[in-house]
Specification:
The complex is a heterodimer of chains A (111) and B (812). Chain A is mainly β and 111 residues long. Helix content of chain A is 0%, strand content 38%. The model of chain A has no long low-confidence stretch (mean pLDDT 92). Chain B has 812 residues and is α/β, with parallel strands linked by helices.
């Protein structure tokens, strides 16, 4: 499948262990940066009660939702057990310092 | 190549150690387990409910064989290890199976003690120790009528109750004159005896067994005094002995048990031992909680982390006989230098005795109503000074203004659909199911699997009761060993002390120095570490915004729909027409849906978008208003009444005092939210006696109150002291706040903190020690130099701009 990569900014625009929001027609997408400078993107809605994941605390490859502290895996969108649910996971890639996002979420997540 | 770990003993202690090890170092060892019993690993403390027919054996299995396969563990079940070649580092089983080891873990448990009286080897005489014994008892109950249980201790009574449930006529023989004399005093022992006799048990006290009579099979038990009791089954439950035969045989130093040090190593450092077979600091244990604590420490050492130490356990006891509530813990017999507090209500069948030494609780016995057992246990473990609530302590925690607990019987009666945890919407059935399905033993386990009690914590007592009710036995683990979170072995207090001592000024340096188990912590430890670093080093510590909760990062309160609310500060609850006008203008300009007066005398604007915040703050700043910090673990409000300026009862200028208190303390970060109030007279219209720090003005001056809150568990303040000048009020306020800032755990409000450390501890530092009070106040003021900047102004001027702007707006 050919993804339409869109340049959304540079790595340094996103705080380490933090996130920034990309606004799109399909809703907000949270773009995360881990301590190791890996970048991930999830729909900015917790599968629990729709909390904005972009506002949560990032640790390891997880983010803690700011509303009720559900933990969501950044590399799959899946909630950490015992919670169940999933936030849509969007492909992202780095080219040099530039961050590219695809607006086609990975399949398998109803959210 | 991986190192080899061999475990001898497939019981609770050994396997729990493996589980802990797999959690922290899953790939370190090739693991081999030898178990003499032909079963997987089961929950031995649940044998009593199996015998009583309340549970099946399948329900008490902890790890089935698939678990060993899933974790790549070689299991030799039904193979007893008969020798260890320590020089060649090999173990040898009875069938010739050999396994070599780099490290060896012995968890050989204990064996029941069998009185060597004549006839003890007859068919029908058994101990009460394993599934095999339970099977035999169940079998006997089908065929025979009479059973004798020798031993009126915990295990014996549980066995007797179980056999009675199975329809047998049971006689308990007890050598002493009190049942369960190791756990109960004579009064509670008598109450227990009556209750058991009412259920149909026959109990003979001071009954010494002379002989067990029978041909091949037991027929009766003969006592020293000549009485003869018919019996087709005799259960010996007179105690257990650490199983040290193998260790002794291979030259590992043993006394009563296998002697181990604080890292659970025997005299051969390659050989570890945990569980009922060990003797640690002279103690041997037969309850489950110490075994789990040992397992955790042992796993830590096996994982080569080397930071855990086992320092012994305090244990408590409950009897697993349904419908009988008894609890005991600590030293309840007392001695010459102890005092006893006793409460007895014979008609209700309630009794409690507390043993107190130097105003600290040393032991407790409770019968009939054990609702406060876990609270007393906590007071003992934390060595809390009880002098301030001593007169009420016998009546329980509910009489200290704590309304959040329920009792175990009430729990038992609750429907499965009854909601236990209101925060996370978890009902009783979910919790019980998780405890039984997932084999949970600790509060932490339940929190991790069900979320119950993981948010506000007000249901913790209920969850603990459910655990006790479902699991039985002692499930709890000493809190002084409780780490901050799963990322570390260290406690809050250890971390705080290390930050000071080693001059650690960033989260990174704390995690590196204290060997964090995760690369960058979690949402629980990072905010705590950030606070601890900033509290210890207000000038030089590096504040990590990404380790602050969004509210503190964005300086507004996140709401359920991801909008924010904004609350400007109103000093001492006062305002002016200009300020009101500015707030109204902002509300109109940004189309604010809800304008609301808060419980702390402020005006809040709700429903604001994040990107609007800096603009709104700019407008409010222009009108002279700063952030109310209504979002932070910080000084929130100082509530006031109008005092003597207007009120006909007012004694002092409480309004102005409130303003001064707020001007002094605003902007300060605290372990949890912090509220103050100043009331102008004892009518206390500002409700100062449910605040973290409250002032009640009286004719002679000012009464100072601390440690109250109107939160989940309403708690009225403790009276700290009375002072006569405003200057003193301010000094005490600063000193108290600083003690709390420096000593409480993150997310612990003043109320639970004071209940944990005791008011006396606080008074010592603030009231009794003037130099210390001054020093505390100075440290507070020093810290305030760096804290009293308006975060709104900074952000209105462009600080942290990225926080409030999207990375990109796409048209797709």
């Amino acid at each position: 499948m050919s993804e339409n990569w869109i340049e959304i900014g540079t790595l340094s625009d996103i705080p380490r262990l933090g996130a920034r929001v990309v606004e799109s027609k399909q809703g907000d997408i949270a773009v995360f940066r881990t301590a190791d400078d890996e970048v991930f993107a999830l729909r900015d809605k917790c599968p629990h009660k729709g909390g904005p994941l972009s506002q949560g605390i990032v640790h390891g490859k997880r983010v803690a939702c700011p509303l009720h502290d559900w933990k969501i895996n950044l590399d799959s969108g899946l909630a950490v057990a015992p919670d169940e649910g999933c936030a849509a996971y969007y492909p992202v890639k780095l080219e040099g310092d530039a961050v590219f996002l695809s607006l086609t979420p990975n399949e398998g997540c109803p959210n | 190549m991986k190192e080899k770990l061999v475990l001898i003993g497939n019981g609770m202690a050994g396997v729990r150690t493996l589980e802990e090890l797999l959690k922290v170092a899953p790939d370190l060892y090739d693991i081999t387990v030898f178990g003499a019993e032909p079963y997987g690993n089961y929950n031995r403390i649940m044998l009593s409910p199996v015998l009583a027919g309340e549970k099946t054996i399948d329900e008490i299995m902890l790890n089935d064989e698939q678990w060993y396969i899933d974790n790549h563990i070689t299991l030799h079940k039904g193979k007893e290890v008969i020798n260890i070649d320590r020089s060649a580092q090999k173990v040898i089983a009875s069938d010739g199976t050999k396994a070599s080891y780099d490290r060896l873990l012995m968890a050989t448990g204990s064996t029941p003690f069998i009185i060597p009286c004549p006839g003890h080897e007859l068919e029908g005489v058994i101990g009460f120790r394993d599934i095999h014994d339970v099977d035999k008892m169940l079998e006997a109950a089908k065929q025979h009528q009479h059973a004798v249980v020798i031993g009126g201790g915990l295990l014996g009574l549980e066995a007797a109750n179980g056999l009675m449930q199975q329809g047998m006529k049971v006689t308990v023989l007890h050598l002493m004159d009190t049942l369960m004399e190791r756990q109960l005093d004579s009064v509670a022992g008598k109450m227990l005896r009556k209750s058991l006799e009412d259920r149909g048990l026959e109990i003979l006290m001071q009954a010494s067994t002379k002989e067990i009579k029978g041909q091949d099979h037991v027929q009766s038990v003969l006592l020293e005094d000549g009485r003869e009791i018919p019996a087709e089954l005799v259960v010996m439950a007179v105690g257990i002995r650490p199983n040290i035969a193998l260790a002794e045989k291979v030259g590992i130093h043993c006394e009563r048990g296998i002697v181990v040090n604080d890292t659970m190593q025997t005299f051969d450092p390659k050989v570890y031992a945990v569980g009922e077979c060990v003797q640690h600091r002279g103690q041997v244990y037969g309850l489950v909680a110490p075994l789990f604590e040992m397992g955790k420490v042992c796993a830590n050492h096996l994982a080569k982390m080397g930071i855990g130490r086992y320092e012994g356990s305090m244990t408590s006891t409950k009897l697993k006989v349904t419908g009988i509530d008894l609890f005991s813990a600590g030293d309840f017999t007392g001695g010459e230098d102890t005092e006893e507090l006793v409460f007895q209500d014979a008609s209700r069948g309630v009794y409690r005795k507390l043993v107190v030494q130097d105003n600290k609780l040393k032991g407790a016995v409770m019968y009939g109503d054990t609702i406060d057992g876990s609270w007393y246990f906590d007071l003992m473990r934390d060595a809390t000074d009880i002098s301030d609530f001593r007169e009420n302590i016998l009546f329980g925690q509910a009489h200290l203004g704590d309304s959040g607990h329920g009792d175990e019987n009430r729990i038992a009666m609750m429907a499965d659909s009854a909601e236990i945890c209101g925060c996370n919407g978890v009902c009783k059935g979910d919790i019980v199911k998780a405890i039984t399905d997932k084999k949970l033993f600790t509060l932490e386990d339940v929190r991790a699997h069900t979320k119950a009690s993981s948010s506000c914590g007000s249901c913790t007592g209920l969850v603990e009761s459910l655990l006790a009710h479902t699991v039985g036995g002692d499930y709890s683990v000493a809190p002084h060993l409780k780490p901050l979170c799963a990322c570390t072995e260290h406690t809050h207090d250890e971390i705080r002390a290390t930050i000071k001592e080693k001059e650690l000024k960033s989260i990174r340096s704390v995690m590196d120095f204290m060997e964090w188990k995760t690369p960058d912590g979690c949402s629980k430890c990072r905010p705590a570490l950030n606070y601890y670093v900033m509290c210890a080093w207000p000038d030089a510590g590096s504040d990590d915004g990404q380790s602050r909760f969004i509210n503190e990062r964005a300086h507004a309160n996140i709401q359920k729909d991801a909008t924010y609310s904004v609350i400007p500060r109103m000093w001492g609850g006062g305002t002016t027409p200009e300020e009101l006008r500015a707030i109204a203008d902002v509300a109109e300009k940004f189309n604010v849906k809800t304008v609301h007066v808060t419980g702390g005398q402020r005006i809040a604007l709700y429903g604001l978008k994040k990107h609007e915040l800096p603009v709104i703050w700019n407008d409010l700043n222009q009108a002279g208003m700063v952030s109310g910090h209504a979002y932070g673990k910080a000084l929130r409000t100082v509530k006031t009444c109008v005092g003597k300026e207007w009120c006909r009862f007012g004694t002092q200028d409480s309004t102005q005092l409130g303003i001064e208190l707020e001007k002094m303390t605003w902007g300060s970060w605290t372990p949890h939210k912090y509220k103050m109030a100043a009331s102008g007279c004892p009518r206390n219209c500002a409700e100062a006696t449910i605040k973290d720090f409250g002032v009640v003005c009286v004719d002679s001056g000012y009464e100072l109150h601390v440690g109250g809150n109107g939160g989940i568990k309403v708690r009225a303040t403790d009276f700290l002291c009375a002072v006569s000048t405003e200057e003193e009020v301010l000094e005490y306020a600063a000193a108290f706040m600083q003690v709390y800032r420096e000593q409480a755990h993150y997310l612990e409000r003043t109320a639970p903190w004071i209940e944990r450390v005791g008011l006396a501890h606080v008074k010592e530092q603030i009231v009794d020690d003037a130099d210390n009070r001054v020093a505390l106040a100075e440290r507070f003021h020093f810290s305030q130099k760096f804290a009293q900047d308006d975060p709104w102004q900074q952000r209105a001027q462009g600080a942290e701009k990225h926080e409030f702007e999207p990375l990109k707006q796409l048209n797709a």
